[in-house]
Amino acid sequence: MHAFDPVREDKFTFGLWTVGNPGRDPFGPSVRPTMDPNHIVRRLAELGAYGVNLHDNDLVPFGASASEQSAIVKAFKQTLADTGMVVPMATTNLFSHPIFKDGAFTANDPKVRAFALQKTMRAIDLGAELGAKIYVFWGGREGVEADACRDPRTAWHRMRDAIDFLCGYVRDNNYGMKFALEAKPNEPRGDLYLPTTGHMLHFISTLEHGDMVGVNPEVAHEVMAGLSFAHNVAQAMACDKLFHIDLNGQKIGRYDQDLRFGSEDQKGAFLLVRLLEGTAGGPGYEGPRHFDAHAYRTEDEEGVWAFATGCMRTYKILKARAQAFDADPEVTALIAEQTDRELTPLLTRGYTIQKAAKLKELEIDVDAVASRGLGYERLDQLMVEHLLGVRGG
Ligand code: GCO
Ligand code: MN
Ligand code: MN
């Protein structure tokens, strides 16, 4: 067994829709047969994954009868039991059926909004039955092309009404679930509402039960918006709102590529893993490491499993690189926090009139401070050398 081989304790999860993606795109149909969810679970378990996540319709086809659903769920639970795999997260497909062409919770037609709530309550019941404790909300088609169709403030209020209602539903049923909201700037709509993790964090602060709601940031989505993914994740962690995460790879300025984790922007991926694993200090992330990505359209089923293995291996390799980087004495010396027994207390724990008076009197040698070199060139080069594997074992 090699150090980078995935094991259950690593808590790696995949969506049924990710490895199950048949390679359909706007320019052509499927290139791989649809895989049975039970087969997916068995193969992922063999590869060392911890669990799978699902949309309601990844498991139970849209419009299935109650008896069809119970047969499917029974067989699926048996597969989970046989393999020891879990379902930590569930979600709703509120974007595929044509009824959702103008969105779900924000759609102008109240019948669409009612159907979206009905479908989500049923999907939450399904998630609870499978043991999911995290419920993800990705807006899907909550957005616009013809912006005059609704006041964007109305969309925002409708979204809040829906999430408040569904928090009530989960509480009423004692499901003990938490919600994780996933932002995306565009695609499939021209503009999506609540486009970044930062928008979501603010939105959560306006909810009736904001304590049970956090975020599910996705690498690709923040990179599409031109933002630093690690910074978005860090802000969510700093306020205890990182409830789940969607890992993948993405080139800046493109459509949502859903590439194998770490296959693009290795520096960004390194900084992310370093943060999640807490190798630089501070609390890490305890939840599942979920991959929301899919294999290239060039692949057959073997290629899909190579893709899944690649996601997990790269994560573990980056974790080892981050540990070595943060244990490197030259690195620790360069990033050691400067403290000053007199100044530090003045700069922390808020305002007092005495602190204000002291700060105003302080004599600071502005030129001496300004002319000091910070050594960040050396620091960044050390990071690159660790990343390229020529330093740190
Ligand atoms: C996308 C999204 C989805 C969601 C999924 C779970 O861009 O299509 O990332 O894959 O993550 O619907 O909510
Ligand atoms: Mn996602
Ligand atoms: Mn995505």
Tell me what you see in this structure:
The chain is an alpha/beta fold and 393 residues long. The chain folds into two domains: 8-327, TIM Barrel, CATH 3.20.20.150; 329-387, no CATH class. It is 46% helix and 9% strand. The protein has an eight-stranded parallel beta sheet. A two-stranded antiparallel ribbon has the order 5-7. Helix 9 runs parallel beside helix 10 (266-277). The chain starts with 11 loop residues before the first strand and ends in a 6-residue tail after the last helix. The model has no long low-confidence stretch (mean pLDDT 97).
How are the SSEs placed, and which strands pair?
Elements: E1 12-15, H1 16-19, H2 37-47, E2 51-55, H3 56-59, H4 66-83, E3 89-91, H5 110-129, E4 134-138, E5 143-144, H6 152-172, E6 178-182, E7 191-192, H7 197-204, E8 213-215, H8 219-224, H9 229-238, E9 246-247, H10 266-277, E10 289-291, H11 301-327, H12 329-335, H13 344-347, H14 353-361, H15 366-371, H16 376-387
Parallel strand pairs: 1-2, 1-10, 2-3, 3-4, 4-6, 6-8, 9-10
Antiparallel strand pairs: 5-7
Helix pairs in contact: 2-4, 5-6, 9-10, 10-11, 11-16, 12-16
Residues 138, 182, 218, 246, 292 line the site of one manganese (II) ion.
Describe the strand arrangement of the main beta sheet, using strand numbers: 8-6-4-3-2-1-10-9
Q: Please give the largest β-sheet.
A: 8 strands, parallel
Strand content: 5-15%
Number of helix segments? Answer: 16
Low-confidence stretches: none
How much helicity do the residues have?
40-55%
Mean pLDDT: 97
State the end-to-end CA separation. 19 Å
What is the 3D shape?
Answer: globular
Task: Give the CATH class of the largest domain.
Answer: Alpha Beta
The name of the CATH superfamily of the largest domain reads Divalent-metal-dependent TIM barrel enzymes
- What's the CATH topology name of the largest domain? TIM Barrel
Architecture of the largest domain in CATH? Alpha-Beta Barrel
